[in-house]
Amino acid sequence: MNPLKMYIVFLTMACVGLFIPRQINGEVFTALADMEELLETEAYLIGNLEAYIATQEQKLKFLKRRAIDYQKEHNEAESDVSAYLSNPINAYLLTKRLTSDWKSIESVMAYDVGSEYLGNITVYRQFLKFPSDEDLNGAAVALMRLQDTYNLDTSSIAKGELNGVQYSTEMTANDCFEMGRQSYLNKDYYHTALWMREAMDRLTSDTNHTTSTSKADILEYLAFSVYKQGNVVSALRMTNQLLELLPDHERAMGNKVFYEKHLKEEEVIKADKKLKGDDGSDELEAENFYLKPYSNPHIYSTPERRLYEQLCRNEIRLSLAELSKLKCKYVTNNSHFLKIAPLKLEEAHLKPYIVIYHDVMHDEEIEFVKQVARPRFKRATVQNHKTGELEVAHYRISKSAWLKDEEHKYVADISQRVEDMTGLTTETAEELQVVNYGIGGHYEPHFDFARREETNAFTSLGTGNRIATVLFYMSDVEQGGATVFPLLNLSLWPKKGTAAFWYNLHASGEGDYLTRHAACPVLMGQKWVSNKWLHERNQEFLRPCELLPDHAEM
Ligand SMILES: *[C@@H]1O[C@H](CO)[C@@H](O)[C@H](O)[C@H]1NC(C)=O
Ligand SMILES: *[C@@H]1O[C@H](CO)[C@@H](O)[C@H](O)[C@H]1NC(C)=O
Ligand SMILES: *[C@@H]1O[C@H](CO)[C@@H](O)[C@H](O)[C@H]1NC(C)=O
Ligand SMILES: *[C@@H]1O[C@H](CO)[C@@H](O)[C@H](O)[C@H]1NC(C)=O
């Protein structure tokens, strides 16, 4: 699935004016299955539009034929008025044309072909899935999240290029304008300015004027967003440009006065300072204030965020010294099953110990798990550590479902394999959680274990804390979607059929804070994973407690 295409599907529907306000869900865009339904909706709409055009054309064809007939008759009359009108038949026909004939023409002209087809759309709304305004906003935000995380420049995205790979869809000036408008609605003036500039560039190069967006519209948003970013000089310049195009634009006139007043006040302050014998350093600051580059307030807001994004982009890796200590090996580990089919283990990190097992879920199992999970998908939730309640959160966008061992042999087989891989029991484990990350789906840095202050977490389960995590990758991801550990400089790239395993707790039962990890947003394609979270209870003899918080190594 291509994020640009998805956004444009939403946008097309928005432009046709088909959005209906629904409950705020903002989750349509998280899964591919939902997007498929939207394509079906679009097929209906296109069919309806074509039928409308055909009917409208029939109507125009009829009127055109009449016009030609009348014109012909009229020309004849004009060529010799008295001869024409002295013919009693002609006199009758002219009178008829201007009475009953014109009445029928008028009624055809007045006949509103559109209302029937608009009625069709009302019907569609009852049985087809339509995205809401929130969905459009969500799709735009998802695209901007990808832009920030993967450092993509606006014009490349608009050209349909993601991370150097050319995908087919190109965005129009109006597509970009809408990206800007959505950012504006979210009060995100940084992205408003980026996308409005792009819209302006596209409009200037679009010599065919195929778009409904006007230069004045763009200038208005652009001026306000650069003002909000502190650049009053540019805001004023753009407003003046806007007034050149539309001298009567009332809001622009008001804004012009406002910006000028703002600038004058700044000048007074500056002059005041000079009088007081300032050394001019503040002046420099004020100058910078106006020339402040457009900075993204969201990006790099914390050192962790910076690391997280760099890891998602594969810009940071383990040092060679660390890499050289890692091994690959076959493990049999006293299991009868494994003696026949040993597991392929690849060490990903030593302290804490994180391993990748290769070929631990085969395609048939993967297809089965996806198929069973799909109809049960819900927007993934996180536990509120204060109340212990599950709730949706903007920092975890994905769909998930839970599968029980008893449901099918395959699910039980997977649990058995988890035991073989970890040497732990799955008796106290949670059910298999299946997760689908669509475009922009992600999970920001988090711990899998409950921290001390999270007193309500897992208490209802009565199985202790999450001692370990097994994360199965059930798809390859075309671009993005890594699992990253910001404190370790480690990125794990999804590969279908592999699984990652690590302990969340030290042998002493203390949480291992270095296991903090995140799921990077999916840039292209989609990501399927499943989790098996193992709990402390009943592991006493399998992983004996120790007093020191020893890192587990196997
Ligand atoms: C749409 O409306 C037209 C005119 O009323 C009707 O002929 C047509 O069957 C409708 N199409 C659908 C798919 O409902
Ligand atoms: C503009 O229109 C012409 C003729 O209709 C077409 O050949 C050309 O490709 C169009 N250019 C763009 C940028 O769409
Ligand atoms: C092997 O089995 C032992 C004991 O059953 C367990 O402690 C260890 O973690 C297992 N290791 C692997 C790699 O499965
Ligand atoms: C991770 O990489 C950054 C940048 O290369 C480096 O400054 C930092 O020390 C590394 N951290 C670890 C834990 O290796």
UniProtKB/TrEMBL annotation:
Where does this one sit in the cell?
Endoplasmic reticulum lumen
Identify the domain of life.
Answer: Eukaryota
Ranges where the Fe2OG dioxygenase domain occurs: 428-536
Q: Which UniProt keywords apply?
A: Coiled coil, Dioxygenase, Endoplasmic reticulum, Glycoprotein, Iron, Metal-binding, Oxidoreductase, Signal, Vitamin C
Signal peptide range equals 1-26
Q: Which residues form a coiled coil?
A: 46-80
Which Gene Ontology cellular component annotation is one that this UniProt entry carries?
endoplasmic reticulum lumen
**Under which EC number(s) is this enzyme classified?**
1.14.11.2
Q: Name one GO molecular function term.
A: L-ascorbic acid binding
Top-level class of the enzyme under EC nomenclature: oxidoreductase
Q: Which cofactor does it need?
A: L-ascorbate
Keyword Coiled coil appears in the UniProt entry: yes
Function statement: Catalyzes the post-translational formation of 4-hydroxyproline in -Xaa-Pro-Gly- sequences in collagens and other proteins.
Family designation? Belongs to the P4HA family.
Read off the PANTHER family from this record.
PROLYL 4-HYDROXYLASE ALPHA SUBUNIT, PROLYL 4-HYDROXYLASE SUBUNIT ALPHA-2
What protein name applies here?
procollagen-proline 4-dioxygenase
**Gene for this protein?**
P4HA2_3
